[in-house]
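Before relying on records like the one below, remember that each one covers exactly one chain. Contacts with other chains, cofactors or solvent are not represented anywhere in the record.
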Amino acid sequence: MTGPTAQQASAYLERADEVALEDDRARRVHSRVSIGHGLVFGTFAAGVWVADGTRWGGLVTFGAQIVFLVAVLVLTRHRETAVRTVPRRARRIAAVGTICSGIPFLALTWFVFIVDLPLPAPLLAALAGLVIAAPAVVAGLLIRRGGLR
């Protein structure tokens, strides 16, 4: 069995330039998932901190943990099934954004719950949630824009 002829190979290479390795839809999906991860981290942290001082705080915290886990799994599954291509450098940008959101999330949660510091005021908890969400949101916007150029 022989390979393609020189003319067939040349025609194939000419058509290969027309095939897009990434598309706008893939960029939108990856961007939304990265932003979603950041918002889930920030909302969870702020919501748990505010709810922990209430009468039903333990139940609310447990429910928030379940919702948090499900939201992260659904977002990740959506990213993996919605598109077939990964935009250039999108995985790296999303990973850096998620890690940079996760580290303050873990650090601030550790300080409030493990060290047993007093719970922050709701406004401070909301501000902390925004700080936690910011890196992943910026990563999502970078992915949507087309990465680092």
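The chain has one domain: 21-145.
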